[in-house]
Design goal:
The chain is an alpha+beta fold. The protein has eight helices and seven strands; from the N terminus they run ββαβββββααααααα. It has helices at about 35-45, 115-125, 145-155, 165, 175-185, 195-205, 220, 230-245, and strands at about 5-10, 20-25, 70, 75, 95-100, 110, 115. Strand 1 (about 5-10) and strand 2 form a beta hairpin. The protein is elongated and about 60 Å long. The N and C termini lie far apart (about 60 Å).
Length: about 250
């Protein structure tokens, strides 16, 4: 496959960026999108040019490190992570636009790399449970209803990639935050911090400058792990419940 790539290049957070066009050939349909970028970078290095910076780690769709807007869609044309997107979903001769996540709370570091530590600060505000010291509790000492366990597992699949924010026209982090809140609040182990967790995490989310949710639903459509849109409503109920009870 021979492709035309239009990639956002930006040397640093305080430097203006622009789209730069590259031609890349010899791309196998079995390559992942990141392997295709690796091929481009190898050519750029051989020419003495600066390679394109992009985030990646496990390349197995687990860590959530990779992420970019491909032809206007977060992670590209398939509902998966960028590292699991394969070039068979494109045609020979295609022109592909590649840009970083676009959100005020995700400032560009370089090229396609953005700073997503805002997510870490949201989790730090309440994404934990009480862990008493002492010996490990006996297995199954705390019964968890199957419905609660299923809900917790469904929301625990969130990998914090940021596609929900990138896809949202408002740059909202509601789907990410609700996944973390619901995951812990439905479990008995999360009960001690249930009220304070939702208040603290929502306040941290707002402080980071994310936009508000208008129920557009693009976040759930783009989520590679299928976090359901109703989780936002569940978090809103938790927040209202906590507010009415004064955070207790």
């Amino acid at each position: 496959m021979n492709l035309t790539l239009r990639i956002w290049r930006q040397a640093g957070p305080d430097t203006p960026g622009s789209m730069t066009t590259y031609q890349v050939g010899g791309i196998s349909p079995d390559m992942s999108f990141l392997e295709m970028l690796d091929t481009l970078n190898e050519e750029l290095i051989l020419r003495g040019d600066t390679p394109v910076a992009f985030d990646h780690d496990c390349r197995e769709g687990i860590c959530g490190a990779c992420g970019m807007v491909i032809n206007g869609r977060a992670h590209g044309p398939e509902r998966t992570t960028t590292c699991q997107l394969h070039m068979r979903h494109f045609e020979d001769g295609d022109t592909i636009d590649v840009e970083p996540w676009r959100a005020a709370a995700f400032p560009v570091v370089k090229d396609l790399v953005v700073d997503r530590t805002a997510f870490d600060r949201i989790i730090g505000a309440g994404g934990y449970i009480t862990a008493p010291t002492g010996s490990a509790p006996d297995a199954h000492a705390t019964p968890v209803p199957k419905e609660a366990a299923d809900t917790a597992f469904e929301h625990a699949e969130c990998i914090g990639c940021g596609a929900c924010v990138a896809a949202c026209p408002n740059g909202s982090a509601m789907l990410f935050t609700s996944a973390k809140v619901v995951h812990l609040n439905v479990l008995p182990q999360g009960a001690p911090e249930r009220a304070s967790r939702v208040r603290n995490m929502v306040e941290a989310m707002d402080a980071e400058g994310f936009g508000g949710c208008t129920n557009t639903g693009e976040c759930a459509t783009a989520c590679p792990k299928g976090i359901p849109l109703p989780s936002i409503a569940a978090m809103n109920r938790e927040y209202l419940r906590s507010s009415l009870r004064g955070g207790r």
